[in-house]
Amino acid sequence: MIDKIRNQAQYNQVMALIEKFIAKATDSGGFNFLTDAEKKELNSLSLLAEQYEDNILKIMPLPVTISSVVQHKIKELNISQAKLAEMLGLGTSKLSQILNGKREPDVMFLKAIHNKLGISGDFLLENA
After folding, report:
1. How far are the Cα atoms of 1, 68, 79, 81, 102 from residue 73, in angstroms, in the given order?
2. Is residue 119 a contact partner of residue 70, using CB atoms and an 8 Å limit?
3. Any domain includes 2
4. What secondary structure does DSSP assign to 58-98, as a single string?
5. 46-70 burial code (b ≥16 CB/10 A, e <16)
6. Which three-class secondary structure state does DSSP give residue 50?
7. 123 with 78, same domain?
């Protein structure tokens, strides 16, 4: 058992283990279906990841872009890019181009993600 995460590779391994426990809990109907040993290990791994994130990742801030925030929302809502494009009233190719940095976000796109996804107007103005 790891007592401290020392690098990004170890962090990635811990996160993969955490994701396996979460998937198992999701598939079986909740965290109550994990064994006591699995719950204990999940808790320990989560604390290790949290310590690494608090101590190391805060030193190296991740870039926050409109694209990364929208992609996070896609994952959070568990929808496809095509479904998001439909929600926003955009074509799928236009959305894909914007998210991949091949096209600048236009006012219609910015208004749509503000209204439909609740992304802060201040954030959009600062990052557009």
Report:
1. 33, 9, 9, 10, 20
2. yes
3. no
4. TTSPPP--HHHHHHHHHHHHT--HHHHHHHHT--HHHHHHH
5. eebbeebeeeeeeeeeeeeebeebb
6. helix
7. yes
**Distance, CA of 15 to CA of 38 (rounded, Å):** 15
Residues 24 and 71 in one domain: no
Does 116 reside within a domain? yes
Please check whether residues 48 and 71 belong to one and the same domain.
Answer: no
Answer yes or no: is 1 within a domain: no
The model's pLDDT over 116-125, given as tens digits with 9 standing for 90+, comes to 999 888 888 8
26, with CB counted inside 10 A (0-12, 13-18, 19+), is exposed
Q: 0.70 exceeded by the pTM? A: no
CA distance 8 to 14: 10
State the Rg of the chain over Cα. Answer: 19
- Which tokens sit at 81? 């890019």
Q: Considering its fold, how many domains does the chain have in total?
A: 2
pLDDT one-digit tens code per residue, 20-66? 989 888 888 888 888 999 999 999 999 999 988 888 766 655 568 99
- Cα distances from 81 to residues 17, 26, 77, 91, in angstroms, run 27, 23, 11, 10
